From TrEMBL:
It holds the Pfam family PGM_PMM_III. This is Phosphoglucomutase 1. It comes from Mycena venus. Residues 44-183, 209-312, 323-449 form the Alpha-D-phosphohexomutase alpha/beta/alpha domain. Signal peptide: none annotated. Belongs to the phosphohexose mutase family. Its cofactor is Mg(2+). One of its GO terms (biological process) is purine ribonucleoside salvage. GO terms for cellular component: cytoplasm; nucleus.
């Protein structure tokens, strides 16, 4: 193991940013070994989400040196693994976070220095613009500098492969190895970047092409002009406002009411601790704005505008914030109706969702006759699964994950908050024309396909050894059975177990190998059933980016009250008995 002194010495040798260099020097001079160990001992890992972490000096953080090294490794890997990579070029975009523009330019400088044609988007773009541009320009890869909805101190480096989908294995490991083989910085300067003939500006052209493609989702422009429903929109201090505003205009909607305090990009996110529309309290300002303007619907995008959330004011005056799964079901039903209206054979329609998302689309597919496919969590898997289905002859106009991410159409195989926003607004238009609301339509879908209710949350655990211990106990719950997973929960018999860590699927004899690829962390899914037909799916997994044990619980059945009761019981028993939350001092999110 390298000494802390040698790790610090190597940093001081390589880092040419005087601010971060001084950070490490001061920690060293002060003898702050605890902080230095945290920053210097472990290198930030390049994974399937690229890089994401706190902005600070050190090998474990996001900074100039780490970005340059990542870019050099990626550059060399792409050159070796993508045909004509240099001439096809690379697409680079960035959001508004601290250091985002600088890191986009440093990344571009690395690629230009290696002779790559480099399409560097000028100004702020939303994340979907990068995969769209990779596809439109037939580039060899794409990089977006963003930390999505993470807190203000974080930033990230997201990579798209030549197929315009986020990278998956083995590329993540290949890029990681290439980074470690290319650690000596070859360039730090960006002064000549914009004058280089290799650094190209196709930003406006790509924006125009993006909105031209988005217009293919526009089904009811004439009705949109006449809608009397008022929308409030929040961009959560992010980049989405000009994109959503142009999309609204393109679709023929009257302008929305912006949440002015959150309308413009602000890297400090002053009104929200966590700029994620899913977080409790994040929509409070938007809801108050809607109340003040007598608006019925609130629309929200996360800061880099690839996620979407919505709320509806009920008849009693209470706000209903739709869950990610509810929105996914609503969008799926909308896409199904549009596909059916086109006259195309329904058996050629396919939709994709992550395995931790609701099973309601699965029930919808069984009843209506289209194909539904599950995949691992993350749009890197959803996008690639969609492409595989296209090769098999299917159309895949929609895919989603419960973490408020939605994919529309065939050009962007990634989540797109702008497309989701206008798709939801069109759904409102269509329903209001028939005297319905989105919530009343959701209730119709429940009556047709069964009531599906979810309870998704997490436990906080900062000790990896305890997390391992909890999951090991779940795999050895009964000493007298093989396999030894729990056999019941909340009075329901466990009917199947899929462990994507060990590679076990009880539903797939004789090999018992799962059809889904293995997960890099802990991930187990249990299905259970009551005698009255009520079903339950519980998936528990570790987070790749946070100290959390996440769980996704969904109950379904004909009786709404019974479904809700089961959810409460499962949540309680899982925490108290399965996870032994009190014994292990597991934290929970604030109520």
């Amino acid at each position: 193991m390298a000494s802390l002194e040698s790790l610090v010495s190597e940093w001081m040798r390589l880092d040419q940013n005087e601010v971060t260099k001084l950070e490490i020097q001061r920690l060293s001079d002060d003898g702050n070994t605890a902080e230095l160990e945290q920053r210097m001992r472990t290198r930030i890992e390049f994974g399937t989400a690229g890089l994401r972490g706190r902005m600070a000096a050190g090998w474990s953080c996001m900074n100039d040196l780490i970005v340059i090294q990542a870019s050099q490794g990626l550059c060399q890997y792409v050159m070796k693994n993508v045909e004509n990579a240099v001439s096809r070029g690379v697409v680079i975009g960035h959001d508004h976070r601290h250091n985002s523009e600088r890191w986009a330019e440093l990344t571009a400088a690395v690629f230009v220095n290696s002779g790559f044609k480099t399409y560097l988007h000028r100004g702020l773009v939303h994340t979907p613009m990068v995969p769209f541009s990779v596809q439109a320009l037939q580039a060899s890869c794409g990089i977006m500098i963003t930390a999505s909805h993470n807190p203000k101190d974080d930033n990230g480096y997201k990579v798209y492969w030549e197929n315009a989908v986020q990278i998956i294995g083995p590329h993540d490991k290949g890029i990681s190895a290439s980074i470690k083989a290319n650690l000596e910085p070859k360039t730090w300067t960006t002064e000549q970047l914009h004058s280089s003939e290799l650094c190209l500006d196709r930003t406006q052209e790509m924006k125009d092409a993006y909105f031209s493609n988005l217009s293919s989702l526009n089904r009811s422009r004439s009705l949109n002009r006449q809608i009397e429903v008022k929308f409030v929109n929040t961009s959560m201090h992010g980049v989405s406002d000009p994109f959503v505003s142009r999309a609204f205009e393109s679709f023929g909607f009257p302008p929305y009411v912006p949440v002015t305090e959150q309308q413009h990009p602000d890297p400090d996110f002053p009104t929200v601790a966590f700029p994620n529309p899913e977080e409790k309290g994040a929509l409070d300002l938007a809801l108050r704005t809607a109340d003040a303007h007598n608006a019925i619907y609130v629309l929200a995008q996360d800061p880099d505008s690839d996620r979407f959330c919505a709320a509806e004011k009920g008849s009693s005056g209470q706000w209903i914030v739709f869950t990610g799964d509810q929105l996914g079901t609503l969008f799926a039903a909308q896409v199904l109706e549009q596909y059916r209206a086109s006259g195309k054979p329904i058996e050629k329609l396919a939709m994709v969702a992550s395995t931790v998302s609701s099973k309601m689309i699965e029930a919808m597919a069984e009843k209506e006759g289209f194909k539904f496919v599950e995949c691992l969590t993350g749009f890197k898997f959803i996008g690639n699964t969609a492409l595989q289905l296209v090769v098999q002859g299917y159309e895949v106009p929609f895919g989603y994950e419960e973490a408020i991410g939605y994919m529309f159409g065939s050009r962007i195989r990634d989540k797109d908050g702008v497309a989701a926003t206008v798709s939801f607004a069109e759904l409102v238009t269509s329903l209001s024309n028939h005297g319905k609301t989105v919530h009343s339509y959701l209730e119709e879908l429940y009556r047709r396909y069964g009531y599906f209710q979810t309870n998704n949350s997490y436990f906080i655990c900062k000790d990896p050894l305890i997390i391992d211990k909890i999951f090991q106990r779940l795999r050895n719950y009964h000493s007298d059975t093989k396999p030894a997973y729990p056999q019941e929960i909340a009075g329901m018999a466990i009917t199947s177990v899929v462990d994507l860590t060990t590679g076990y699927d009880s539903t797939n004899p004789p090999t018992y190998k799962p059809s889904l690829p293995l997960s890099s962390g802990h991930m187990i899914q249990f299905r259970a059933k009551k005698e009255d037909g009520t079903k339950m799916v519980l998936t528990t997994r570790t987070s790749g980016t946070e100290p959390k044990i996440k769980y996704y619980i969904e109950a379904s059945g004909k009786d709404k009250a019974g479904v809700q009761d089961i959810l409460v019981e499962v949540v309680e028993e899982q925490g108290a008995t399965w996870m032994e939350a009190e014994k292990h001092h597991l934290g929970r999110p604030k109520a």
